[in-house]
Structure to design on (230 residues):
């Protein structure tokens, strides 16, 4: 295992001091920011205007999303994009439903400054609100071209798609890009104990339920992902 080079606070989204901010608002680790700029240039040469709708997200921000999902203020969707009645779900079933699309605060890869959710501004109408649905990236979808281009070109630029397809944890997210050399180190270094400490320090909605199921959450929704293709 590599020596830790980020603190537990940085790995769990409680300290953004390792990040730089780009002109477009993206917050990334410096090396990931350089690679992202290069990828944008490559895409532009092929008529794709890459843009990030999300990069770094803090623990507090994720905790707010989490709370809104737990209380039903934000819709909780299943893989068929049907809204679930969250008030009917209890225990592990409730956590599982939310975790399909929303990471546990402290456990989001977006805390690391290595991840981006991307769209193509060249094809979206000015008033278009990206939904971040797989159908937008599939044939016939508004981001079809990007959906094909990304898996073919991300790797050469140092990125991969950890949620390229569903592997039993997080749902397929063909828009989620990860800067591999740095994110693989974060992935190795983020431990169950760090997650527990972050939660104890800043409790979240359904705290007791989450703590009771934390090892299972870590296994299925943090550790389970698509490996980079060689
Ligand atoms: Zn994402």
């Amino acid at each position: 295992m590599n020596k830790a080079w980020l603190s537990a606070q940085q790995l769990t989204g409680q300290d953004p001091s390792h990040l730089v901010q780009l002109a477009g608002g993206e917050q990334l680790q410096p090396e990931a920011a350089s690679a992202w700029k290069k990828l944008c240039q490559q895409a532009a040469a092929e008529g794709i205007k890459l843009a990030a709708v999300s990069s770094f997200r803090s623990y507090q921000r994720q905790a707010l999303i989490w709370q809104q999902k737990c209380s039903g203020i934000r819709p909780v969707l299943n893989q068929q994009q049907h809204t679930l009645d969250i008030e009917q779900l209890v225990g592990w079933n409730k956590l599982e439903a939310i975790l399909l699309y929303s990471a546990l605060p402290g456990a989001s890869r977006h805390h690391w400054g290595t991840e981006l959710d991307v769209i193509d501004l060249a094809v979206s109408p000015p008033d278009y609100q990206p939904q971040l649905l797989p159908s937008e990236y599939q044939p016939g979808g508004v981001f079809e071209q990007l959906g094909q281009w990304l898996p073919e070109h991300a790797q050469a630029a140092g990125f991969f798609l950890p949620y390229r397809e569903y592997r039993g944890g997080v749902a397929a997210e063909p828009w989620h890009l990860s800067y591999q050399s740095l994110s693989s180190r974060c992935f190795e270094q983020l431990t169950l104990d760090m997650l527990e400490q972050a939660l104890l320090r800043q409790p979240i909605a359904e705290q007791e339920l989450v703590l009771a199921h934390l090892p299972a959450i870590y296994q299925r929704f943090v550790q389970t992902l698509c490996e980079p293709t060689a």
Summary: Strands lie at 20-21, 27-28, 50-54, 115-120, 159-160, 176-179. The chain has one domain: 16-222. The two ends are 21 Å apart (CA to CA).
